[in-house]
Amino acid sequence: MFRFFENFVDPYCDYPQSDTPPTTIGRFLLGFSKPFKMVFAVTGFMSIVVATVEMALIAYMGRVVDILTGSPQEVWIDHGTELIVAALLILLVRPVLQLLHVMLLNNAILPNFATLIRWRSHRHVLRQSVGWFENDFAGRIANRVIQTPGAAGEVVFQVFDAITFALAYVIGAAVLLGAADARLLFPLCIWLGLFALLIRWTVLHVGGASQAASDARSSLTGRVVDSYSNIHSVKLFAHQDQELAYAKEAIADTRETFSKEMRIYTVMNAILVTLNGGLIVGIVGWAIGLWAQDLASVGVVAAATALALRLTAMTGWIMWALTSFFRQLGVVAEGMETITQPIALMDNPSAAPLKLQAGEIRFEGLSHHYGRETGGIDNLNLTIGAGEKIGLIGRSGAGKSTLVKLLLRFYDVEQGRILIDGQDISLVTQDSLRSQIGLVQQDNALLHRSVRDNLLYGRPDANEAQILDAAHKAQAHDFILNLEDPEGRRGYDAHVGERGVKLSGGQRQRVTLARVILKNAPILILDEATSALDSEAEAAIQETLHHMMEGKTVIAIAHRLSTIAQMDRILVLDDGKIAEEGSHTELLEKKGLYAQFWSRQSGGFLNLEATTE
To answer: HSE of 5 in the Cβ direction (CA atoms, 13 Å)?
Structure first.
């Protein structure tokens, strides 16, 4: 039975993706609600039915009081069948209706609605550019993607569990009191007016307060995750106290914003208790007055009393539900600051897959300064022939990493264009572009999954033999076999920890090399590919790298000039421009920057911070 309700809506159903999601809460939630239209309609109807049954039950209890004015024998003879039917309805029909309502809410809507939002939000966020992620805390982004769907589900829950039910209940109460005596509506109407003012006051204050509290929690999460993910640096520099102070600032802000939110609820509860006292005295007192004038039966007094007590008992729940509703709307609004940001780096509407034939790369009039006036690349023109091996060197900030990021289209170029085999990379799909490029970086972070899963990232359809062959070529197979994680998984099934923290730098580098070997892309970028290896391991892998480069277009960035001395051509970048180019021998003969870098090397490393004389 549970599975029947849980399968009402498929949270992973197809939907039209938008690069610019709606930025208002109403349209945001409405977009996710489309697959739930029928379920929402049935649930709303059931909320009204359940409220009507509750009101009918109170009204019937008043009738029972009036029935009991006769002797037991007369009551049983005259009303016995009616009481038995009423009892059966209460025992059998009412629970079924309640169960149907609850299962629609708890099993059909809540799990699926939150899942659908979480799935689509995560899918949207993953489409954002690398630069977008670099401008925020990963922890805060993750917190919003995880927290917002739950808050949105709570909003929907309160609509059908409390708000719809409460509206139907109040209308039913008015009908019931009006049928007994229209004058009983007077205290109810006064109470409703004051209650509405209290709701309005609460809503106006709690929305902003809850959004501020939610934003503070997300900021705190970002800071804490930042500390945890960089725990090696924290320990290395003995900065636990500094990190505590950094977190304490956010913790204090979270406490302050939450305290302000809670003050609103305290004031609300104090006013609500006073209003409810007035409702009880007003309705019950008026009913007793009518009874004293022989204008109402004891049953009417009993029903009015039960109704007043039920309303006052319910108002706390309704008010809390309403404040929860608007508080969760505040959480949704805070999460939307991340989830609804438009995709800044998109495929061209007419983008086609990259058709790589030879692997020629051309940079034409390329300029990119990250929105600033300096730094990055400045009017660079360069052609890398198909199958040519290029060495790229330069001081820190010369533009080497920028060139690689632009080639991978992690950013859109500000001026100029990049062509691969004559195709402008801004006019091809990003996935097809990156599938043709293999990259080995200096800082290679691995996924917190098994070694096998990390290797398969390079080629998901690779078989076991191909995985093992790539690991052997990267000199990684032997140490992988000796791995074991805390869960007892061994070898290729061992998990490597967040960002590969359980492996040494050299081990991570070799796993990354194996992954790129497995990918076997026709364009290869080596960004300090052997920097984390010791001399012996580097010597063993150099031969592997030479085999990897055969038949490929290669861009190799290195501080250790000996690793690129055999390249077809070496480029020296300075201030975003090509200062020198040529073979190793030609550049030494020029006695320019390259020759100075070469002469300053110690153990084959380039002093990137050295300045020219």
So the answer is: 18
Burial class, 213, CB count within 10 angstroms (exposed 0-12 / middle 13-18 / buried 19+): buried
User: How many Å separate Cα 253 from the centre of its chain?
Assistant: 23
Cα torsion 183, 185, 190, 191 to 10°: value is 130
236 token code pair: 């290395």
Q: Which residues contact 27 (CB under 8 A, 6 or more apart)?
A: none
Render 215-253 in DSSP notation, one character per residue. HHHHHHHHHHHHHHHTHHHHHHTT-HHHHHHHHHHHHHH
What are the tokens at 465? 């033999």
The amino acid at residue 60 is Y
How high is the pLDDT of residue 36? 92
Cα 162 to its chain centre, rounded Å, is 28
Q: Is the pTM of this model over 0.85?
A: no
Find out whether 334 and 211 touch, Cβ atoms under 8 Å: yes
Query: Phi, psi at residue 215, to the nearest 5°?
Result: -65, -40
**pLDDT tens-digit readout, 530-585:** 665 666 666 666 777 777 788 899 998 877 777 777 889 999 988 888 899 998 88
pLDDT of res. 386:
93
Is there a contact between 419 and 384 (Cβ–Cβ < 8 Å)?
no
CB neighbours of 563 closer than 8 A, spacing ≥ 6?
530, 538, 542, 556, 604
Residues 6+ apart with CB under 8 A from 401: 527, 557
Which helix (DSSP H) or strand (DSSP E) does residue 308 occupy? helix 298-339
Nearest residue to 438 (alpha-carbon basis) of 410, 458, 423: 458
Give, for 212, the enclosing helix (H) or strand (E). helix 185-229
CA quadruple 584, 587, 591, 595: dihedral sign:
negative
Banded model confidence at residue 147, pLDDT cuts 50, 70, 90? confident
Element (H, E) at 524: strand 523-527
Assigned token pair, 180? 């007994």
Name 456's Cβ contacts closer than 8 Å, sequence gap at least 6.
Answer: 462, 467, 518
**Alpha carbon distance, N-terminus to C-terminus of the chain:** 81
- Return the pLDDT at 271: 85
Both tokens of 359, joined, read 């692997």
Give the chain's count of helices (H) and strands (E). Answer: 22, 10
Q: Which residue type is seen at 426? A: S
pLDDT, mean of residues 341-357: 89
Give pLDDT tens digits for 475-529.
Answer: 889 999 999 888 889 999 999 887 777 888 778 888 888 999 999 899 999 887 6
pLDDT digits (tens, 9 = 90+) for 73-126: 877 878 788 888 888 988 889 899 989 988 998 899 988 999 999 999 999 998
Q: How many CA atoms lie within 13 A of 136 on its CB side?
A: 20
Nearest to 416 by CA among 360, 368, 351, 348: 368
Q: Is 574 helix (H, G, I), strand (E, B) or coil?
A: strand
What is the enclosing helix (H) or strand (E) of 466? helix 464-473
